[in-house]
């Protein structure tokens, strides 16, 4: 009668699993390196292509608000107004969309009946797939007209706040209108990610809170929201990334204007992405390189925002 060495039979499956683990680890490592290589390649392309215009620029690129860069031998252009408009529009969208997205996610996860939650979840995912040009057409064709009376009301009762000072734009093509359209665009992204995070809250945490006599809202406040805070931040940053780089919807709503204005009810401001989309077809000479330099600034802003969000999430200790 032959006997089998138990140590041999135990090591064989373990060896096969070890090979699989090694292959998976190498594949994941290679994917991470590939992402870094692509990111470095994009940055190198932007820097190289924008070098000529930046070297010939006679204005301060970071502080100037003028843009005269096409066929002149000594172009003068700056990205200050465009960067300001980009950050302002994205900030408005984030402030408007994040609370609504959290509320929708909580309703789907913990309040709505199962069938209604399934339908709402499907609609949220569907809204995320709508092209940005459709949002732009909706904004310029219907929304801005409807907002003009609301803007007049804001000026009447809140005009003492500098943000809502008049005179109100009669066309409704303001930075606040662009921010509202961007908020609608990023709402499905933030909602979908936040909903998934809320559904991952350990059942033991929720049941422990309810067992201590907490109401449903108290359970959400004590167990769900602390656990889902990193996911909320991550979803908000994903939405912010789309808002920063949005092109067509903003280009269709805002009137081209290279100014720095805090007045949300007046026409003015422009974003980097929309400016590139509007100027690129007619750009010549240093103009193309100057637009690529503006794209480099947008790339840097997006990178800084995402790195800051990653730092905030990593600083958050695991919920216990």
From TrEMBL:
Signal peptide, first to last residue: none
Q: Where in the cell is it found?
A: Cell membrane
Q: Which InterPro entries match?
A: MetI-like, MetI-like_sf, Phosphate_PstC, Phosphate_Transport_Permease
| Any one biological process term the GO annotation gives | phosphate ion transport
GO CC, sorted alphabetically, is:
plasma membrane
Checking PROSITE patterns in the record gives:
ABC_TM1
- Report membrane topology: Multi-pass membrane protein
Q: Which UniProt key words apply to this protein? A: Cell membrane, Membrane, Phosphate transport, Transmembrane, Transmembrane helix, Transport
Keyword Transmembrane on entry: yes
A family per Pfam: BPD_transp_1
Q: Which GO terms describe its molecular function?
A: phosphate transmembrane transporter activity
* UniProt entry tagged with the keyword Transmembrane helix: yes
Q: Which domain of life is it from?
A: Bacteria
Residue ranges annotated as transmembrane are: 33-56, 76-109, 116-138, 150-168, 175-193, 219-240, 247-265, 285-309
What the protein does comes down to: Part of the binding-protein-dependent transport system for phosphate; probably responsible for the translocation of the substrate across the membrane.
Q: What family does this chain come from, according to its entry?
A: Belongs to the binding-protein-dependent transport system permease family. CysTW subfamily.
Q: What is this protein called?
A: Phosphate transport system permease protein
Q: Where does this protein come from, organism-wise? A: Thermobifida halotolerans
Gene name linked to the record:
pstC
